[in-house]
Amino acid sequence: MPSQPEITLYWLESTRCIRILWLLNELGLDYTIVPYDKKGSVMAPKELYQHHPLGKAPILELKYDDERGNITLVESGHIINYMLKWFDLEKKFIPVTEEGERSMDYFLHFAEGTMQPPLTYQFYLTRLIPESKQLPESFRENYAKYQEYIDEVYTFPKLEEYSLYLEKLLREQKEKNGGAEKVYFVEDKLTGADLALGFEAATSLFGNPLYRHITDPKRVPLLASWVKYAVFDRPAYKEAVEAEKSIVDGGFKVLKIDQHGH
Amino acid sequence: MPSQPEITLYWLESTRCIRILWLLNELGLDYTIVPYDKKGSVMAPKELYQHHPLGKAPILELKYDDERGNITLVESGHIINYMLKWFDLEKKFIPVTEEGERSMDYFLHFAEGTMQPPLTYQFYLTRLIPESKQLPESFRENYAKYQEYIDEVYTFPKLEEYSLYLEKLLREQKEKNGGAEKVYFVEDKLTGADLALGFEAATSLFGNPLYRHITDPKRVPLLASWVKYAVFDRPAYKEAVEAEKSIVDGGFKVLKIDQHGH
Q: A112 vs chain B: nearest CA distance in angstroms?
């Protein structure tokens, strides 16, 4: 591999950062995590704006020592695309067929464009709760019923539909791959598609008790199984979770991850 | 150009379909529009499920007469990517530099991943209004105040931030391009980035009176100007708007667009 640029991940708790940590670990890259704390707020802290004009994590900075100079990447799907293109030289996580390439690009867009909106709606609905000074107390008292209403007419039906859709896709993959025990969303290996879906499907959907009736392994056996072998049980994912834990436990100090030094 | 596949756009009113119609017109392709009517509902009609398992428009179907067979594309960003790759052989809308390519991929993800969420939140907030049988009348009476609260703490600040960000990017493009009168988001021509942003920035943001204070040309002069020359005034965009109008006025009949026949 040609000389690696200096890689810095500007990390923020409870965001899509786990996806990028996981990716960097799968690629075996060295990197520095500069962590930020939400300090109880829904919104990202002002300090992140010094690294990118939108101030939202994950922000991945690459310092090349050639004419490329410094490159700052944002948007998870785009980061996955870029990093695989430049650092997965053996095509371990890149599809090898034309159809596979198209399929991976689809899933990168599907993750944010379709799967994420109901999750985002639910996230803000439980966090942007009106203050009593702006709305009468009676409104606030009924707010929980309103949340239930939105879950019933929008969040739950959509997430149920998407999880059954993913289950169906995995079933088709199983048939295509001669009944293989472990199947992935594109071709026959973990690709950028799984790395992108890992956040929505594994972390947000399966990781949230609110959606337990949707993620019941009896309803979506292949997806429930995929969440384990393709995400939670991957050593690179486990290391990402450990890194996040040590950031929070260690009081949000800068962390250097050296994949080759240990 | 090699023989074109048969192209069918499954179209639904008030969706991102205008983006794909515009794209097909820019590429000078012939296509058939099979339109669907929401019939007053927020959700897409069941009939769309026969064309794709998620039943959401835009759905673009390509029938090749070679080994590729039928390809069904969904997710706007992915559709733009695919169509430019295979049908923009002269690279009229594709960046020519490495940096430009990276930048276009970023904007394709930014459009749905960052710009769209507050617009989607606002869209559902004004459409998923609880029924009186599920929540007390007093809650419904105060719902408008709640909408104002969400606008104040989330929708407006985010959309303001994003429009100022886009303005800043256009200013940088202007400087890079020697003060050119017309600038675009990537390199010096209309690319997939503008085609992707056209929906959020032009249709959803500038097209909605609710956001008039955010889209004031005094605040975002370059963006307001871009919305005109890069979107609304493009002949290909105007033809897309006309096609949509004739679908609705004509009672949702199938429409064949023959770019070479007239």
A: 5
Complex ipTM, two decimals?
Answer: 0.95
| Among B54, B149, B150, beta carbon nearest to A165 | B54
The reported pTM is 0.95
Q: Is A238 exposed, middle or buried (0-12, 13-18, 19+ CB in 10 A)?
A: middle
Q: Which residues of B touch A116 (CB under 8 A)?
A: 113, 117
Q: How many CB atoms lie within 10 A of CB A23?
A: 28
Q: Which residues of A touch B (CB under 8 A)?
A: 53-54, 56, 71, 73-78, 81-82, 102, 105-106, 108-110, 112-114, 116-117, 120-121, 124, 128, 130-131, 134-136, 138-139, 142, 145-146, 149-150, 153-154, 161-162, 165, 168
Asked if A46 and A57 count as a contact pair (C-beta separation under 8 A), the reply is no
Say if the Cβ atoms of B77 and A110 lie within 8 Å.
Answer: no
**Structure tokens that stand for B193 in this block:** 């980035």
User: pLDDT tens digits for chain A (262 residues)?
Assistant: 457 899 999 999 878 899 999 999 999 999 999 999 888 777 778 899 999 999 999 999 999 999 899 999 999 999 999 999 999 999 999 999 999 999 999 999 999 999 999 999 998 898 888 876 778 888 888 999 999 999 999 999 999 999 999 999 999 999 999 999 999 999 999 999 999 999 889 889 999 999 999 999 999 999 999 999 999 999 999 999 999 999 999 999 999 998 876 5
Judged by DSSP in three states, A118 sits in: helix
Domains of chain B from N-terminus onward: 6-92+237-257 (3.40.30.10), 98-231 (1.20.1050)
- Quick one: closest CA in B to A143, which residue? B139
